[in-house]
Amino acid sequence: MITEVRQARVSDHPAILDRVRTWWGDTHSAEQSRELSLLLPKLFLQFFAHTSLVVERDGEIRAFLIGLYSGDDDHGAYIHFVGVAPELRGQGVGRELYEEFFRRAAGAGRKEVRSITSPHNRRSVAFHRAMGFTLEPGDRELDGLPVHSDYDGPGFDRVCFRRAL
């Protein structure tokens, strides 16, 4: 399915930001898409390119995963942000990126991967569950999901996931 999965490079940053603004444009306003791109400052590729992945087809970024290994916990890894071109969604590209990240993290001695999403992002919740993540208990429940209130600041609740490798 995937033409090429490679380690991310700092030089990928402008293209990744463009993809976020474009790929989320069908479900978010231009301002919301721009705000999403702010979750990916260049520092993620300056300091975590070796743990981040890019899928290319015909020399163009078609999917990406920004991940990192914890500096405080020798056993932990974290998936921060994933994007897949809309026309490739549902074809296993995201799954392949996650599985490649799991393989690399396990090879580096990592024992678990964590991730978060908005409690309103039902697709992301379902995807993480299908990938073997468990939901961490929160401080309240929303529509049957354990939620961590104000996780990313006031009003930014999150669902937290954990997956053993």
Would you give an account of this structure?
By secondary structure, the chain is α+β, with helices and mostly antiparallel strands. It has two domains: 1-110, Gcn5-related N-acetyltransferase (GNAT) (Aminopeptidase, 3-Layer(aba) Sandwich), CATH 3.40.630.30; 115-165, no CATH class. It has five helices and nine strands. The chain has helices spanning 13-23, 30-37, 43-48, 93-107, 122-130; strands at residues 4-7, 53-57, 60-69, 76-84, 112-117, 134-135, 140-142, 145-147, 159-164. A seven-stranded mixed sheet has the order 1-2-3-4-5-9-6, sandwiched between helices. Helix 1 packs antiparallel against helix 2. The longest helix has 15 residues, at 93-107. It starts with a strand and ends with a strand. The model has no long low-confidence stretch (mean pLDDT 93).
- Count of folded domains: 2
The residue-averaged pLDDT reads 93
Radius of gyration, whole Å: 15 Å
Largest sheet: 7 strands, mixed
Output the CATH topology of the largest domain.
Aminopeptidase
Helicity, as a percent range = 25-40%
State the secondary-structure class.
alpha+beta
Q: Which outline best applies?
A: globular
User: Which regions are unreliable across 5 or more consecutive residues at pLDDT < 50?
Assistant: none
Q: Which class of the largest domain in CATH terms?
A: Alpha Beta
Number of continuous helical runs: 5
Query: What's the architecture of the largest domain in CATH terms?
Result: 3-Layer(aba) Sandwich
Distance between the termini: 24 Å
